[in-house]
Design goal:
9 helices, 28 strands, five-stranded mixed beta sheet, 642 residues, 21% strand, alpha/beta
Length: 642
């Protein structure tokens, strides 16, 4: 989100120290088992030509009928907090743009809820990203009556109860609602403010618990379709977030934790939105710093228990840049901002930092949602105006899912808001004649887009046991710990194991059938943990001199385990239809051995790897027990699918 000059992004990190003070509302925790029941206070529903829930098909988001649903959205902020962190919290001057949100979505003091939603429809929106703070969840103090002047039926309610009413109204009005955990505290984001990471002002356990609470609370609200896990993960004074190191700052692992709990404990219908890393390093010339965004997903991508629920997201503002924090003065470097780049260089940066994720047939393939971008109506800089035209052209040409920041603001306070309301409720903004960026907005909203049914495409997903288990199958989890003491990996239900790394412990899963029938697994279930060569036929030694873990006849591999580098066990499941035919041995202990043009991409950089063909299944793993040799997987037994 845009920040006030007094809170420039990460500027204080240059000095090397800062006493960070944060506030949160003191209140008893919300009951973790509570469920929100949709309110009867709903606005008139607008026709909605889509049906929830949403899922993914390759780079596209689709509705329950398999039709493309493009997120054309905006951010209705306020519930994440507006206090800038200095001065009295009761003085509106100490809130972002002089707007005291009282911890609820902005505008409810000025405009009736049904009128707000009608205005949102007039913009052409179909999606609302609805930020909240963890502090909001636990705040049991009703908002002042003045915060809901235009909506008197909301008087006496807590911020969470008002959030409930907004969610209900949006859903009834036909909008897709994506819940966004924006901040820990109810303080304006996003600098050195106690909200840098999901666990900056709370434990990771508390953060995940709150997500389970929120996902359960709105599980019965039909158009609540997504959980946007955390906003703009970034460096604090001393430390960077990372993607895959396995420590307390590991955003990759934290996102997996929250996603797993949401989908298995709370609401399996939700899309899971994982934003890239917004900033690492100290913004000073000569020191490493920059915006990783989604680049880490190219080598370490997320695999969820539902292979069709992952959406990646990124934020782009003209005043920031690939290596520019957005600061002016302290914390400003000589790196170019996005608005300083040529159109071609801007488009290269957008691809390299985010949109490469939409490439087909990769372990990281997923939709990319630009969940924040924006500019002010009062912007006069030619460079900034040109940037806005260029980036909206890119989004229009690439059929991008997007959400503008912000949606609602106070007239005379926040000219970034698409819609601005004065104290009488009179509306102004981008729908008015003469607004300079209205043409670019309309181009984005009306550009040709993929519509209708989206053809099914094969899914490719990575398994990584770098720091623990990666058992992504709900069916396998229900059977318990199938190899105690080992790190275990299992493909999501509906996918099978097709590739392995030699020393990395990583694997590749797919549901590709080479044009044959769908999921080959038997519906009745069952599984076999293979720890020795009992299923290797006497006349079928496909890896002489090597230890072999071969599935029983009629079964195929969905998982594996390791103790250190050494293969520990193979997990096999029975096939729906008979599996037969001769196999081939795919060796990868001395080089890569994947089919020419293999789909899935390089699922483990820097390691030898082997992969069966798209029309094959893996039926066995071979490894060596020779002293002095690496005990990781050396070969796969690949057989043709029927």
């Amino acid at each position: 989100m845009p920040i006030a000059p007094a809170a420039l992004r990460l500027a204080v990190a240059v000095a090397g120290f800062l006493l960070v003070t944060t506030t949160s509302t003191a209140a008893s925790p919300a009951p973790k088992g509570s469920t929100h029941h949709p309110s009867s206070e709903v606005v008139a529903a607008a026709p909605a030509a889509w049906s929830p829930p949403l899922s993914t098909q390759g780079r596209y988001i689709v509705d329950s009928q398999g039709n493309r649903f493009r997120l054309k959205g905006a951010n209705w902020d306020g519930a994440q907090g507006s206090w800038t962190g200095s001065g009295s919290i009761g003085d509106p001057a100490n809130h972002h743009a002089g707007q005291d949100s009282h911890g609820i979505p902005l505008g409810l003091d000025r405009v009736p809820l049904d009128q707000l939603l009608n205005d949102f429809h007039q913009l052409g929106l179909n999606t609302i990203r609805l930020p909240f703070s963890n502090a909001m969840i636990h705040n049991t103090t009703p908002v002042p009556d003045s915060a809901v002047t235009a909506n008197p039926r909301l008087r006496g309610r807590t911020p969470l109860q008002i959030y409930d009413a907004v969610v209900d109204a949006l859903s009834a009005g036909g909008f897709a609602v994506i819940l966004n955990n924006h901040t820990n505290t109810s303080r304006w984001c996003c600098g050195i403010d106690g909200n840098e990471r999901w666990n900056s002002s709370q434990s990771a356990q508390a953060w995940a618990d709150d997500w389970v609470f929120m996902a359960r609370r709105y599980a019965s609200v039909p158009r609540v379709v997504g959980a946007d896990l955390y906003n703009e993960v970034r460096r604090d004074v001393l430390d960077d977030p990372n993607w895959g190191l396995g420590d307390d700052h590991d955003w990759y692992a934290a996102a997996r934790l929250a996603a797993d709990r949401i989908l298995t404990e709370a609401n399996p219908r939700l899309l899971i939105v994982v934003e890239g890393i917004n900033w690492t390093g100290i913004p000073a010339d000569g020191l490493p710093h920059g915006r990783p965004v989604l680049t880490p997903a190219g080598t370490l991508s997320h695999t969820l228990v539902d292979a069709h629920k992952l959406v990646y997201s990124a934020h782009f503002y003209g005043y920031t840049g690939p290596h520019h924090s957005g600061a002016t003065g302290v914390g400003e470097t000589h790196d170019p901002r996005y608005q300083d780049l040529s159109r071609d260089d801007l488009y290269t940066a957008l691809h390299d930092e985010a949109f490469f994720v939409e490439e087909p047939d990769r372990h990281y393939t997923a939709p990319v949602w630009v969940s924040e971008f924006g500019i002010g109506a009062g912007e006069t800089s030619p460079a900034a105006r040109t940037w806005f035209g260029s980036i909206t052209d890119y989004f229009a040409g690439h059929d991008t899912d997007f959400a503008f920041w912000p949606l609602v603001g106070f007239a005379g306070h926040d000219d970034w808001a698409l819609l601005q309301y004065d104290e009488t409720g009179h509306r102004s903004g981008i729908l008015d004649a003469g607004d300079w960026h209205a043409a670019a907005w309309q181009h984005l909203m009306t550009a040709p887009s993929e519509t209708g049914p989206v053809a099914a495409v094969p899914v490719w997903r990575m398994l990584a046991i770098d720091h623990g288990d990666a058992v992504e199958s709900v069916r396998v989890r229900a059977t318990g710990d199938w190899d105690p003491g080992a790190y275990k990996a299992t493909c999501p239900d509906g996918l099978r194991l097709i590739g392995l790394g030699h020393t990395s412990g990583r694997g590749l899963c797919t549901d590709s059938t080479g044009g044959g029938p769908g999921d080959p697994r038997a519906a009745a279930g069952g599984q076999t943990v293979v720890t020795d060569e009992r299923y290797v036929p006497a006349s079928g030694d496909w890896a002489s001199g090597y230890a072999k873990l071969q599935c029983p006849e009629g079964s195929f591999l969905v998982g594996y385990s390791a103790r250190g580098e050494r293969v520990s066990a193979a997990l096999c499941v029975p096939a729906r239809n008979p599996l037969a035919g001769a196999g081939r041995t795919v060796w990868f202990d001395r080089s890569d051995n994947r089919p020419t043009g293999a789909a899935g991409g390089d699922f483990v950089y820097g390691d030898y790897k082997g992969q069966c063909g798209d029309d094959e299944y893996a039926a066995g793993i071979a490894y060596t027990t020779r002293v002095g040799s690496r005990p990781g997987p050396d070969a796969l037994l690949c057989r043709r699918l029927p």
